[in-house]
Design a protein that fits this description.
43% of the residues lie in helices and 18% in strands. It has twelve helices and twelve strands. The structure holds nicotinamide-adenine-dinucleotide (NAD).
């Protein structure tokens, strides 16, 4: 008999760090995690961890020979800035890696006779605003608007969303005996800010980096202009969104890819918030034109009405609460 389990890929990363703890506190004890890296010390023992590569087909085959996977949180990816340095490698990990897992989930759905739930964190990088005027005209983009990504990462995310829909709804649609298909659900996240981990390789990192630098008492140069505006969300809300969408009855969902967001603010406003709590923080702006171009192509805000209506999405942390109750106290503790 195979053991039942939830699979989290990319579990050693920022979202994985919080997701493992949230799932464990809900009583989930059969979690299998996969990452190139070991789990951070605090999370050791919360899951059966496999240190390995998502691209390793033999490893995935071994995994399903041992576990009956009912839910997959597929977090492993190369993030936006990193992906621009090695675009073809990013394509391999972000697209082919996702395809490997979608295939695995399809096979598993077939074996089980019921759909495997496949949770996928997509991103505002799936959007591409052509210029700042249009960005200002569309302050809250809908899921189907401006799907013209300008980065390899954004292209990868948008295409993987489509692959997920394909494997859920159309896979082998001409076959006489259509297999049981998987249940793909995706969230387009804004920039996420965690109090417990420092981001790396993303292009929304200037927000969290400002805050962590201020708490450490080191100067920080933001790589964007002060007027740069994108949406953000506190990490606990990102985990809540993943868990809530995972639990929603399929009949309530009118789409497979949902925007979710919490607050939008400019880099200058972010700095002001940081200064409110760390008045001695030394934050300056030195835009890196290439990274700036990427952030400018991302929308200033997301319309998440469908998520609110279909499965009751609502962030717990608005801007004030995120700083006052989650970010600042935990980050202070971390660097004390
Ligand atoms: N953090 C954000 O602001 C944000 C926003 C939107 C979407 N997302 C998405 O959420 C997911 C998780 O993001 P994160 O912030 O935790 O990223 P992260 O970079 O902190 O974690 C990604 C993890 O994936 C692992 N990984 C990469 N390639 C792998 C491979 N070939 N095999 C196995 N593991 C591999 C890395 O070792 C890393 O631990 C990603 O898909 C990301 O695109 C993140």
């Amino acid at each position: 008999m195979r053991k039942k389990g939830i699979l989290i890929t990319g579990a050693a990363g920022e979202i994985g760090d919080s997701l493992i703890r949230a799932l464990t506190s809900q009583g989930e004890d059969q979690i299998v995690t996969l990452d190139l890296k070991p789990l951070p010390k605090e999370n050791e023992g919360l899951s059966t961890h496999i240190q390995g590569d998502l691209m390793d087909q033999a490893l995935l085959a071994r995994l399903v020979s041992e576990y009956e996977i009912g839910t997959i949180y597929h977090l492993a990816a190369l993030l936006s800035t990193r992906a621009e340095f090695t675009p073809e490698m990013a394509h391999q990990v972000n697209v082919e890696g996702t395809l490997n897992l979608l295939r695995l989930a399809s096979d598993q759905s077939q074996w089980r006779g019921e759909p495997v739930l496949f949770m996928f964190p997509s991103s505002i990088a799936a959007y591409g605003m052509p210029n700042l005027e249009i960005k200002a005209q569309y302050p809250r983009v809908r899921e189907w608007e401006w799907n013209y990504p300008t980065t390899m990462y954004g292209c990868n995310k948008l295409y993987c969303e489509m692959l997920g829909v394909y494997y859920s709804q159309y896979y082998r649609q001409l076959a006489v005996d259509r297999p049981v298909t998987l249940d793909f659900r995706a969230l387009r996240f804004p920039g996420l800010i965690s109090a417990f981990t420092v981001p790396s390789g993303g292009t929304s990192d200037y927000g969290p980096e400002m805050l962590h630098a201020a708490a450490k008492g080191v100067p920080y140069e933001a790589f964007v202009r002060p007027d740069t505006c994108i949406p953000f969300m506190a990490m606990p809300d990102a985990v809540t969104a993943l868990l809530k969408l995972a639990k929603a009855p399929a009949s309530a969902l009118s789409r497979r890819v949902y925007n979710v967001t919490s607050f939008s603010l400019t880099a200058a406003e972010f700095k002001d918030m940081v200064l409110r709590y760390f008045p001695n923080a030394q934050i300056s702006f030195r835009p890196d034109l290439k990274r700036q171009r990427i952030v400018d192509s991302w929308p200033a805000g997301l319309n998440d009405n469908d998520a609110r209506r279909d499965w009751g999405w609502k962030p717990d942390y608005d801007l004030e609460r995120a700083f006052a109750e989650y970010l600042v106290p935990n980050i202070r503790k971390r660097y004390q």
